[in-house]
Amino acid sequence: MTDALTFSPDVVLLDIEGTISSQSYVVDVMYPYVRDHLPGYLAARRGDPVIERILADAAALAGPGADPVEAMLGWLAEDKKAPPLKKAQGLIWEAGYAEGAFRGHIYEDAHAALVRWRAAGVPLFIFSSGSVQAQVQFFENNAAGDLRGLFSGHFDTDIGAKVETESYRRIAAAIGVAPDRLLFFSDNPRELVAATAAGLPVVHVLREDVASDPRFPEIRSFEEVTLRTAPAAE
Predict the structure, then answer these.
(1) Over the stretch 55-110, which tens digit does the pLDDT of each residue have?
(2) Which of 102-129 are b and which e, b meaning 16 or more Cβ less than 10 Å from the residue's Cβ?
(3) How many domains does the chain have?
(4) Global pTM value
(5) Which of 37, 54, 105, 204 could form a Cys-Cys staple with 218, CB 3.0–4.6 A?
(6) CA distance between the termini of the chain
(7) What is the CATH number for 182?
């Protein structure tokens, strides 16, 4: 059991998988859907400028002679955060949501905290390796309902990798908040190291089998966090 934590941020930045949503749900349900549908989805849409750009970017990233579709399937198996894969993933998940194949998942304690913080006037932002499109779909088609209204904005790896310090500086600048007023929650210590180096206060979220790390304040539930902050202007 961790001790209760109190912070006074102006803005909150959150990871998705393993932080406010179950990583195992994404890995066991949503990733296999992409794996099973990616080749056919892309083949059926050849000539579409968006698909052609994804394939061209994947081919460039994979290297000379590589098949872009096979490369993306390999990246998916490795959980590599490759931008072309993430863009294709978002499109395929959109189709899956439309078919009712799955719904986004959010932990009850996280949902309750986000609703409470948003009602108190705290702007909430997401930073995920999934594309902004995929993030919006995830919250729109969520088992807890349409959650899009909770968030003031979204960032993906177009702004930089999640393990790079400069990404967090760019996010703070884009939001218009000092880094030390931007509180970041993640289950990934490498992301927390990068955010800390950028000046952000951080919280390590211990979900599923994530191990404790003495470098960071930690929680097992968002019920263990209290925010004391005046509403920030948006």
Answers:
(1) 999 999 999 999 999 999 999 999 888 999 999 998 999 999 999 999 999 999 99
(2) bbbbbbebbbebbeebbeeebbbbbbbb
(3) 2
(4) 0.85
(5) 204
(6) 35
(7) 3.40.50.1000
